[in-house]
Amino acid sequence: MAFFGRKSYKTLTELVAGCQRQEPRAQRAFYERYQERMLGVCVRYARTVAEAEDIFQEAFLKVFTHINDITKPESADSWVKSVVVRTAINYYHRTTLPQEHLTSYESSHESLASDEHLHILAGYNLEVLLGLLARLPDLYRLVVNLYLIEGYSHAEIALLLTIPEATVRSRFSRGRQLLLTDIEQHGIQRHELLG
């Protein structure tokens, strides 16, 4: 039973406007709207769930700090996701990159055609694929996530990570190969997916 009446936000525009006025109910509803989905995004970039939760919390501090920057409330979904992805990348630069030691990479006995990986990955259970992605070394996981899951181009990833595009392509290639090798080791052969 609510004593003070409950303000309902029927549209995203109303919800964003409520957050811009710093209404606690609007902020709570906004947070809850994105919590599950954006935490899932954070998990893809983090090594642990606790790390993902830290990234998520940091991202939402930025979201609420800069909520007044939203001029088109209907684009809030993509804006929030962009803030979360950029926060994950910044977290990576701050914490993971200094510690990162690339694992040795052994080339596969068989090379794949450039777009064949998309067909293979599309035929794989998403939950299992995300679990395999989480096992990649950080540098590769970040690039593979941005390219395959988020849909960024190599040039866009290079800008986000402030590294040369050739490095992005190299990390993607190595990460993709490690991922495909891991997929094969889990019992899925290429001919089963391509058949």
From TrEMBL:
A GO biological process held by the record: DNA-templated transcription initiation
InterPro entries with a match to the protein in the record: RNA_pol_sigma-70-like, RNA_pol_sigma-70_dom, RNA_pol_sigma70_r2, RNA_pol_sigma70_r4_t2, RNA_pol_sigma_r2, RNA_pol_sigma_r3/r4-like, WH-like_DNA-bd_sf
A matching Pfam family: Sigma70_r2
Top-rank taxon, per record: Bacteria
Domain RNA polymerase sigma factor 70 region 4 type span(s) in chain numbering: 127-179
Gene Ontology MF term list: DNA binding; sigma factor activity
Keyword Membrane: no
Family: Belongs to the sigma-70 factor family. ECF subfamily.
Protein name: RNA polymerase sigma factor
Source species of the chain: Spirosoma sordidisoli
